[in-house]
Write a structure and sequence with these properties.
Elements (H helix, E strand, L loop, with lengths): L2 E6 L6 H11 L3 E7 L1 H4 L10 H9 L4 E7 L5 H7 L3 E5 L8 H14 L2 E5 L7 H11 L3 H14 L3 E6 L2 H9 L1 E4 L2 E4 L2 E4 L1 H7 L10 H14 L4 E4 L6 H13 L4 E5 L14 H4 L3 H14 L6 E6 L8 H14 L3 E4 L7 H13 L5 E3 L9 H7 L3 E4 L2 H20 L12 H5 L7
Parallel strand pairs: 1-2, 1-4, 2-3, 4-5, 6-9, 6-15, 9-10, 10-11, 11-12, 12-13, 13-14, 14-15
Antiparallel strand pairs: 7-8
Helix pairs in contact: 8-10, 11-13, 13-14, 14-15
Length: 432
């Protein structure tokens, strides 16, 4: 019997999907190439359902003979592997971002002696609109919590943007750029203690309790669906840290980053004294261990932030701490530096990767931002945090608008500096 290949995401099953499955089954045994998370994530949003969940759904669709993983955005590797007589696809790929994929498929099927079947796109079905409707419904703490680990497993680089209130959260949630290779967007959000306090006009001190910080985080949680990484400063006393872990985990936060410093908080960009302010390795390892034991789920992540390079220490000293923290159970390592060359960061990453091939590495390239995400990937980095750019961008824009109003004694000249209020309101779910 002839074989038919159909590639799909299988995240949202709608009448258009059922139609193309039914049409494909008419030509022979229908093999569904179900795209894996890693095949999808670099090109579009991560599916709501995991691969295994999607596989169960698709396997139970009438007309599907079997489901196989498609581990590449391109159909060609699977076409060469399974050599189907036909491949079936909606005719919507004749234009748009899948146009190049279509060309590759046609050439591959010509070599195989097979045929490409194109089915008219089902009218009245808009997948993008369905996704937007899903976003408006929101997410649950459990689903949000698990997403960061899925992203790390699926993407070469996970892109995180600082947010400090609900509006900046909506920007991180919705902004995207359509480039060659797919739609580029942010994968998650960074709840920074620095920008949270600064946006309130208060100094960045660790005296702010978790309850106060969580008020701002809740504003973001209520209007977004993407995972959040929480800036936990030093994590406080180990005995208190366990309650922080439980609170964040219960609210659906994916990870907390804690730094190996002690004493009165001082922003790392101003430097620290290595002898006075770095925590003893044994004490910090104990804090990590207690935090891990306090977790209820396996998905929540504790990330250890190394301050050795900030303190003027060597890469060897930073590596010693990193290896100890991994042994203590940390889920990932963040290496920090104030040097603009990035040479120390690169050396650390390459040497750390020789010791641990899979432990995630987190970078915050505020000072060494001349490097691209692709370059960081070659160093072995997994997560890039853009740690304070939303707040830094907002302040000069507001300052210019205020100065313009004072200068001209009216707001007309400030209009080019401001987006229409209607456009802002359209970001907010339920406003339309």
């Amino acid at each position: 019997m002839a074989t038919v290949y159909l590639g799909m995401t299988g995240d949202i099953i709608h009448p258009g999907i059922i139609n193309i499955v039914n049409e494909g089954a008419k030509y022979g045994d229908l093999i569904v190439g179900l795209l894996t998370d890693s095949a999808i994530a670099p090109h579009k949003r991560l599916p709501y359902l995991t691969y295994e969940q999607r596989k169960v759904v698709v396997e139970n669709l009438k007309g599907v003979s079997r489901v196989v993983p498609q581990e590449d955005w391109s159909y060609v590797p699977n076409l060469l592997k399974y050599t189907p007589d036909y491949i079936i696809h909606g005719d919507d790929w004749q234009s748009g971002p899948l146009c190049r994929v279509r060309e590759e498929v046609i050439l591959a099927m010509e070599k195989l002696g097979g045929k490409v079947i194109e089915i008219p796109y089902t009218k009245g079905i808009n997948s993008s609109a369905l996704v937007e409707q899903q976003k408006s419904i929101g997410t649950t703490p459990e689903v949000r919590l698990k997403t960061l680990r899925r992203l790390i497993a699926a993407k070469p680089i996970v892109r995180i943007l600082e947010v400090h209130d609900g509006l900046s959260g909506l920007i991180a949630e919705t902004v995207s750029v359509d480039k060659e290779g797919g739609i580029f967007s942010f994968d998650g959000m960074w709840s920074s203690s620095l920008t949270d306090s600064t946006s309130k006009g208060k100094p960045d001190i660790e005296a702010v309790d978790l309850t106060t910080r969580m008020q701002g985080v809740t504003d973001v949680l209520e209007c977004t669906t993407k995972p959040i990484i929480y800036d936990g400063d030093t994590g406080g006393l180990a005995e208190h840290f366990v309650y922080t872990v439980r609170t964040l985990e219960r609210n659906g936060i994916s990870a907390i980053i804690i730094e190996d410093k002690v004493g009165l908080k001082k922003n790392s960009l101003f430097g620290i004294d290595v002898k006075q302010e770095l925590a003893p390795i044994e004490d910090f390892c104990n804090k990590i261990s207690m935090g891990k034991q306090a977790q209820v789920t396996k998905e929540f992540m504790i990330v250890s932030r190394l301050e050795s390079l900030i303190a003027g220490g060597t890469v060897d000293e930073a590596l010693e701490r990193a290896l100890a923290y991994v042994s203590a159970g940390t889920d990932a390592i963040m290496i920090h530096s104030k040097h603009k060359t990035g040479d120390d960061i690169k050396e650390f990453c390459l040497r750390f990767r020789k010791e641990y091939a899979t432990v995630p590495l987190v970078l915050v390239p505020t000072t060494y931002n001349q490097f691209t995400e692709t370059e960081f990937q070659t160093w072995g980095a997994n997560i890039i945090i853009y740690a304070n750019h939303m707040l830094r961008a907002a302040y000069p824009a507001m300052l210019k608008a205020a100065q313009s109003i004072l200068t001209h004694e009216r707001s007309l000249e400030a209009d080019p500096l401001c987006m229409p209020i209607k456009q802002i309101l359209e970001l907010i779910p339920g406003t339309k």
